[in-house]
Amino acid sequence: xxxxxxxxxxxxxxxxxxxxxxxxxxxxxxxxxxxxxxxxxxxxxxxxxxxxxxxxxxxxxxxxxxxxxxxxxxxxxxxxxxxxxxxxxxxxxxxxxxxxxx
Amino acid sequence: xxxxxxxxxxxxxxxxxxxxxxxxxxxxxxxxxxxxxxxxxxxxxxxxxxxxxxxxxxxxxxxxxxxxxxxxxxxxxxxxxxxxxxxxxxxxxxxxxxxxxxxxxxxxxxxxxxxxxxxxxxxxxxxxxxxxxxxxxxxxxxxxxxxxxxxxxxxxxxxxxxxxx
Lengths: 102, 165
Hints:
In chain A, 76% of the residues lie in helices and 4% in strands. Chain A is mainly α. In chain A, strands 1-2 form a two-stranded antiparallel sheet. Chain A contains 4 helices and 2 strands; from the N terminus they run ααββαα. Chain B is mainly α. Chain B is globular. Chains A and B meet through α1, α2, β2, α3 and α4 of A and α1, α2, α3, α5 and α6 of B.
């Protein structure tokens, strides 16, 4: 088999295995209050980090571009209790507008 | 990978991203409560998006979290593959996603999903710290490493947190 496809299929299988492991941990291991607390905090940290990396980095460098304004508008919309679609659309429009100007 | 990156760096990157999904699985498994074949589907659909939507529904209870997870997971799976196919068939017409503001839409959407989960001050501090740590690490570590590292931050916060307030 072509090494490229071997790598693609192997990586996919590995990615699925990693996902499956998370779903296969016995429930009683997760029932301790301290573990429950940690388990609820981990996605918060991961998704916050994801937002920061998606919004403020490019090619492993920290950058402030049109996305910064977009996220700023999204944050403002959230503080003003705007519904979710408004949050996303206002961020998208802001970022697109600045991209066109620049 | 197509650009000639070594197999090792490809596997490392896939693992660093993949472990994120392992941790999401730990969070979602007690909510989804699936067995057998359903568990295979649940595992495959465990991604940033499905977990994010489920978490945004946390106040509404487990049923809403489950619905959010399955709908988002299936939706992303379907559309991801359609767009991958379109891309493979040479759909260059769209041009730069940044021109459409899509580079801001994705993080804004994740922020919006996370927002309802950031009511407690301690959770907001964790979120902000995780964002800062991930940004500070980005120039010096391989992609994926900065984000997964913040899981340790969550563990540290969890160990320190007072559970009986």
